[in-house]
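Saturday, quiet lab. Running sequence design on the structure tokens for the scaffold JK sent over.
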């Protein structure tokens, strides 16, 4: 996390090593706005207060673009990459528009190669059993 208000100084900037999730951010915003937690999940998430306890004199963050054009990062998949043809036909214009099963197959084979993809497991509880 980058924060002008984290503890530290220009000579010794702060590096935050805690793991934060969206739920931590939601709880932090609730606290800052004086709102009650929406549910137990965000009520128990630690607040990201460590990022906002400094004097606010950290220098502005400057992005490092040295690797922008050397091919080490910012790579895009080639058109002949595995799964590229299927992925190019998927609708990513809005959430959940792409077929989840097809996308999962592309992602599985990208990471696992030719390893067989496990069959999906579904659980059914008739008439409220298992609640």
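Result came back. Writing it out in full:
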């Amino acid at each position: 996390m980058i924060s002008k208000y984290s503890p530290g100084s220009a000579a010794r900037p702060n590096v935050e090593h805690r793991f934060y999730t969206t739920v931590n951010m939601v709880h932090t915003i609730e606290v800052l706005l004086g709102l009650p937690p929406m549910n137990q999940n965000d009520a128990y998430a630690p607040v990201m207060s460590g990022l906002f306890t400094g004097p606010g004199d950290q220098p502005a963050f400057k992005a490092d673009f040295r690797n922008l054009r050397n091919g080490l990062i910012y790579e895009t998949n080639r058109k002949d990459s595995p799964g590229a043809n299927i992925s190019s036909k998927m609708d990513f214009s809005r959430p959940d528009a792409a077929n989840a099963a097809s996308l999962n197959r592309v992602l599985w084979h990208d990471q696992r190669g030719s390893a067989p993809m496990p069959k999906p497991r579904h659980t059914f509880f008739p008439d409220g059993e298992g609640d």
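Notes for JK: Residues 100-112 form the longest helix (13 residues). The chain has a mean pLDDT of 84. Ask whether to fix the surface positions before the next round.
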